[in-house]
Amino acid sequence: MAGNGAVRFGHFGAPNGPNHVALGQGRGAGKHQFMADPTGIHAFAPFEWMLSLRYLRARRKEGFISVIAGFSFLGIMLGVATLIIVMAVMNGFRKELLNKILGLNGHLLIQPLEAPLTDWETVAERISKVPGVRLAVPIVEGQALASSPFNSAGVLVRGMHGADIAALPSIGNNIKQGSLEGFDEAQGVAVGRRLADQLSLRTGDNVTLVAPKGAVTPMGTTPRIKAYRIVAVFEIGMSEYDASFVFLPLPEAQAYFNRAGDVSAIGGLYRQSRPDRSLPEPCGRGRWPADLHD
What we know:
Radius of gyration: 34 Å
Order of helices and strands: EEHHEHEEHHEHEHEEEEHEHEHE
Helix content: 25-40%
Largest sheet: 6 strands, mixed, barrel
């Protein structure tokens, strides 16, 4: 301790070295003043290295203790490394899976409860104006059997406008054959890559869709059978979607599934931030918004 009342600390007996830190200044100093280390902050200080090596190394008489400490250190290091790797892989898998699922189905699904969704154009316009919603897409959905001269498979037919299909990142960015230009006027379909391979079809070929609910006749309800030309083939990267989804133009899907004037649901895509919980108001009475992101 110096005679003027200042207390000085140094590293390993070097009070005036380059790493010197002074606490207090003068006899009547009312508070401490700290001086920053001009060399910067390192990951481990020399004292920390000395302390860790002191307990990792043992004396010559206690050499076996050093072996135990080394194995313990190695086990902890491997355990922490394994935990970090597993968490990184699972987080990446979850993000990739959510991007593929939400990129096709959207974050939001609005379905009618009490009455058909006949004012879907007005509702979709109101939903698209909600802050945080990037896209509101009317959807007509139904099950059918897709067949070709070589094979057949059960599919999920989804009717959408061509511009809305192109706006979906999982579809618009992964067209492998054909194009979505003029999709509404072409009266064709877009199918997944695995479905096209299963049916041995490609763009330009015809695929036949068979729906169980067709025209009502005096003899009963007959299946609806219609052939469509494949105008685009997409590949999302999930085998379940690539082997089961078929996209039709929205007016054609309404006619095919006997839904003239209404749609099955309205899907929505969020922006970077999720919208607030004021969605039921623009949806209208008798409509329930389901947040698929949750």
